[in-house]
Each structure stands twice: as C-alpha cells, then as structure tokens.
Amino acid sequence: MLSFVFEKIIIGLITLFGVASIIFFLFTVLPGDPAQMMLDQKSDSKQLKILKTKFGFDLPITKQYIFYMNDISLISIHSLDSKDFTFYNKKKYGGIQFFKFNKTVLVFKFPFLRTSYQKRGKKVLSVIHETLPNTIILAIGSISIAIFLGIFLGLVAGYYKDQSIDKALQVFSTLGMSIPSFFSAILFSWFFGYVLYDFTNLNMTGSLYELDDYGESYKLNLKNLILPSVVLGIRPLAVIVQLMRSQLIDVLSQDYIRTAKAKGLSVFRIIYFHAIKNSLNPVITAISGWFASLLSGAVFVEYIFGWRGLGKEVVEALNTLDIPVIMGAVLVISSLFIIINIIVDILYVYIDPQIKYN
Questions:
Q1: What is residue 353's predicted lDDT score, i.e. its pLDDT?
Q2: Pairing of strands 96-101, 218-220
Q3: Nearest-CA neighbor of 270 among 283, 281, 257?
Q4: 124-351 maps to which CATH number?
Q5: Which of 105, 140, 156, 178 has its CA 20 to 30 A from that of 49?
Q6: What is the C-alpha separation between 271 and 232, in angstroms, rounded?
Q7: Strands across the sheet containing 96-101
Q8: Where are the domains of the chain?
Q9: Residue by residue, what is the 3-state secondary structure of 200-260?
Q10: CA 144, 179, 133 angle in degrees (round to 5)?
C-alpha cells in the first residue's frame, strides 16, 4: 500500500508540474503588457520600467519560467544578492532556510502564487484563501445532495426495473444530465427566488456571509446555500442515479444474491448487506470526479447566484485580465483534483477487498 501511495503521489506531482508549465506558457504568450495591467492607463514609461524590473517582466521567457516554478515550489532556490530577481525576502515568501552555500539558500516554504494585478498588490494566495472555502462549502452541499438522493433513487429505480417509477426516474436523470448548469441556475433563481419568494423566502442572489442592515459586520445566511447547491448537484445526482441503477440490476442477477434469496433473507437485508457495497465502486469514482469538477465547474453558478466563491473570482479576474489570480486559481483547483483522486484510489481497497495493488 505504501508503495502504491508513493507512486500515486509521484504521478500527481508530475501531473501538477505539467499543469503549471501549461498555465505559465499559455498566459505568458497572451497579448498585453503585465506591467501596464498592474498600473492605470496614465502611468509613465519610468513607472512601467521599474515595475518590469521588479517583477522580472523584462527577462527572457525561459528565465521567467524558471522563476515562476521556483516561486510555486515547496522547496526553492534563492539568492541572497539583493540585485538578483530571486532575492530571498522572508516577509514575501515566508518559509524556513534549511541549507546555505555562499549567497545561495534552499528554502522550504508555502507556494508563492504572485500578487494580483488589480487588487493593489494583494497576494493571490490571500484572494484564494478568502473565496475557496465558500466554493468548497458549496461543492460539499451539492455533492451531499447528489450522493444521498442519487443512491436512494438509484436503488429504487434498480429494484423496480422497467416499472413506472423506474421510467420516471430515467427521464429525470436524462434531463438532469442534458440541461446546462447555467440555464438551471437562471431558471431556479427566477422561479424559486422571485416567483415563489413568498413561499420559499429564498433570495435570487446572495453569498454565505452577507453584510448586516447597518453595513458594519457580516452575518451567516445559510438559506443562500440552498438554491446553488441544488442546481450544482443536479447533474452529479442524475449520473449517480443511472450508475446505481445499472450496478444494482447487475448485482441482483448474481448467484450469491439468488442464494441469499433462497435462504429466506428479506429484500432489505439482501440490498443493504450484499448489493449496495458491491454496487458502489463506479459510484465512488463518479462522486470523486464530480466533487473535483464542482470546484472548477461552479464558475457560472456562483456568478449567477452572486455566491462569493473562487468561481466568481475567476470570472471577475478574466474580465479584468488579472492573470496571476487566474493562474493561481487553476493551479489550486488542479491540486485539489489530484489529491481527491489519490484519496479515492486509496479508499477503493477498503471498499472492495478484491482489488489488489502491486
């Protein structure tokens, strides 16, 4: 198991390295001057030159790439020469120096994702720290709805195969997979937040924390989580229903299930103690993939509902060409995707003992 986990971590790091490289070259070749983006249109050439020198925008692209990878790495190399762009600044990078040779030091630190162009030099990590928790909460709410309802409805559809309730659930799951999330978001926001507001008391837009009536402090508003969670959970719910149905139908046709029936076990005991566990592997795969996707796929849903999450922040960054925020957000989401998949692969062995890892 340890060798398997180590192998998965190495593969994950290689994947993350590739993602970081693609992100850098993709956004570096975009038209526009980064220094100009950080200043306003009235900035003079002297200010632009100072900024380019400070952040290394005037360096060759290969050197910029090395410095970028150095910034986002956990272990990085820095020079103690203040004239060098790689000058180590503890206030900027944090971390611990654990090796020093002449004027070069090795530093163990948290990844430095640069600073925002539009938020007056605010660190990208701070921007993500403020918005990512809201996106994770929204993703957890959505996937929880999808898991509990999806498994239950999938069991119902599989047990009552080809009956009216099964056909109705198949129609529902097909619609759920077909309708885009942004369209569902607009429809739900208008219908439940406007048309039926007197009955639901739900807002068309709103975030987890909102300013009070006096504008002095933020208060928790959990009801704003309901609509975006339901909308974001519709598609994974539909997928889980279909997967659970097909797996249950397959498992119920196995010999050991017929043996259990012959022994006189009740339907509940057969499904709960035998069928569910052996039907969960593909469902768990779907859940892990969808949970990771929800972190990145919540962009339009967050924007429509005014949910202050990482997705909404990315849309605003795209509108203002705040490149470091976009790059940092993509890198963080990719990291979460890789971590979730590693955890799920490890859990497989506990769910299905027949799986062996070499």
A1: 57
A2: unpaired
A3: 257
A4: 1.10.3720.10
A5: 105
A6: 29
A7: 75-79, 104-108, 96-101
A8: 2-108, 124-351
A9: HCCCCCCCCEEECCCCCCEEECHHHHHHHHHHHHHHHHHHHHHHHHHHHHHHHCCHHHHHH
A10: 35
Give the dihedral sign, CA 318/321/325/329: positive
d(CA 118, CA 332): 20
For residue 105, CA distances in Å to 66, 101, 114, 124, 188 come to: 16, 6, 20, 24, 55
Look at residue 141 in the predicted model and tell me its pLDDT: 92
Alpha-carbon distance values, 57 to 71, 79, 95, 139, 302 (Å) = 15, 19, 25, 37, 33
Residues in the chain, how many? 358
Q: pLDDT value at position 2?
A: 77
Q: Give, in order, the Cα–Cα distances in Å from 193 to each of 7, 189, 307.
A: 48, 5, 14
Give dist(CA 122, CA 120) in Å, integer.
Answer: 6
153 class by beta-carbon count within 10 Å (0-12 exposed, 13-18 middle, 19+ buried): buried
> What residues pair up with 96 in beta bridges, in sequence order?
108
- Residues 258-274, buried b or exposed e (16+ Cβ, 10 A)? eebeeeeeeeeebbeeb
What are the average pLDDT values for consecutive 10-residue runs of the chain, which has 358 residues?
A: 82 92 86 67 71 77 89 84 61 74 83 84 88 91 92 90 91 89 91 92 88 72 92 91 88 80 76 75 76 75 90 87 89 87 75 56
Q: Are 231 and 141 in contact (CB under 8 A)?
A: no
Angstrom distance (rounded) from CA 29 to CA 196: 48
42 CB neighbour count, 10 Å cutoff: 6
Partner residues linked to 108 by β-bridges? 75, 96
Phi, psi of 185 (to 5 degrees): -65, -45
Contact between residue 312 and residue 127 where contact means Cβ atoms under 8 Å apart: no
Structure tokens at 148: 């509990």
Tell me what pLDDT residue 179 has.
87
